[in-house]
Amino acid sequence: MLKFHPDMIHDAKRSIEPHVLKTPILHSAALSRRCDCQVYLKMECWQTCGCFKLRGITNFLHHRKEAVMETGVVTASSGNHALALAYAATKMKVPRIAIFLPENADPAKIDKIRRQGVDPILAGQTFFETFDMAQAHATKSGATYVHSHADPLVIAGQGTIGLEIMEALPDVDAVIVPVGGGGLISGIAAAIHTGASSVAVIGAEPEASPGAYLSLQKGVPCERIPLKPSVADGLAGGLSPLPFEIVHHLIDRVALAAEEDIVVAMKTFFTEEQLVVEGAASVGLAVLLSRKIKLSAKKVVLVLTGRNVSADRFLSIIASDGECA
Question: What's the pLDDT at 146?
């Protein structure tokens, strides 16, 4: 298997530049007041397809084009990775695209995937069940499996976010990154620590899915962990071995967000900045607002990972008292 090296991130930047947006970093005076630090938002929620996942997918398809055009592709995802793959693979005219989603996947993401001309396979009660079914399909069909977070090319693509942050804000003190399987934070941390080791890279994840938190505690990757329902369903899963290997010594810490705090963060993004973002994109603000992380007067970047949540679900969540909707 291809080994990951930080130099791959610079190569990925060149490969994906014509195909993805260089998203802005915006200062939020309102959130800065609320959090007692200088808050900047890396607007990956404005990325094509509404999420950061297009970066890793595009880099993977660029480097594996010959294989995927012959075999087709297959993946498992809670939604955003699948949407990005459907978009990019359709654009490339990949002949066969098999996408597996959990049966309870967000209807907004299912609809967006179908609009790309791909009919997703809804299978499995949990992400792990869905993942196993997709892997079995890849083995049987010979299709190229596109891993959502544990592939070096995907991680390198996500790492381009770190390069953009450092180009725009070289004096940043901390970057807070939502963590699911670990592909995003490992890419960003590798990019940042190649040239700026003093920047704190902090993970944020829901209490319902504390894979990275447990992994750092135990010193081993905790991938198949018990999962609870969460408004941050895009972060369901544990920290995979490859991201753990890359990032365990680069992360400053991982903070856990309670469900009610994630809901408060989603409401705060909406009321203070008129932003509609997913629960998964809100965990960074959740740990800041709840003071799980204290960065008084520091310059802090929150990576807003996605906006793909249906209107009905979003309105239900922000009207709730913090329970999973």
Answer: 97
